[in-house]
Amino acid sequence: MYTMKLLLLTGMLVLFGAGAALAEFVEKRYEATIDEDGVQRVAMEGGEYYFDPNVVVVKVNVPVELNVRDTGGIAPHDIVLHAPEAGIDFAVDYGREPVTISFTPTKVGEYEFDCSKRFLFFKSHRDRGMHGILKVVE
Ligand SMILES: [Cu+2]
What spacing in Å lies between the alpha carbon of 95 and ligand 1's midpoint? Predict the structure, then answer.
């Protein structure tokens, strides 16, 4: 009986460990360049359950166009970033067709974005790995 309990406990620990490993944050970094028309364009994919890139570096006081699209999973996704003090404030749904989000960051700093979706009582998309950082630099 003791052995059974031990096996059960070990199994649960292994499952828990696998779940934690899935949510591990692996950095996919993109440093935006400024196009001839003075806009920094970033193409981003959001899917189950990641953003690619998930670390985006942009210059302060230069307009940004963030093009976000889904890769075609079943779950709907959005991208949310609330930093009005830095001129960045959006919450946008997107699908397979890319959606363009335009803003001009006005303050150097690191701003977190994520997907706010959650299905019923399951873990939120954020907890499953759908989050990232917008780094605004000089
Ligand atoms: Cu999502």
Answer: 11
CATH number belonging to domain 26-137: 2.60.40.420
What separation in Å is there between the alpha carbon of 73 and the centre of ligand 1?
A: 10
| Cα gap 85→131, rounded to integer Å | 20
Q: What's the CA-to-centroid distance between 114 and ligand 1, angstroms?
A: 8
Q: Encode pLDDT of 51-101 as tens digits.
A: 999 999 999 999 999 999 998 888 999 999 999 999 999 999 999 999 999
Q: How far is Cα 95 from Cα 97, in angstroms, rounded to an integer?
A: 5
**CA separation (Å) from 125 to 1, 3, 50, 75?**
39, 37, 8, 10
- Give me ligand 1 centre to Cα 129, in Å: 9
State in Å: Cα 68 to ligand 1 middle.
12
Q: Measure 84 CA to ligand 1 centroid, in angstroms.
A: 22
The structure's pTM equals 0.82
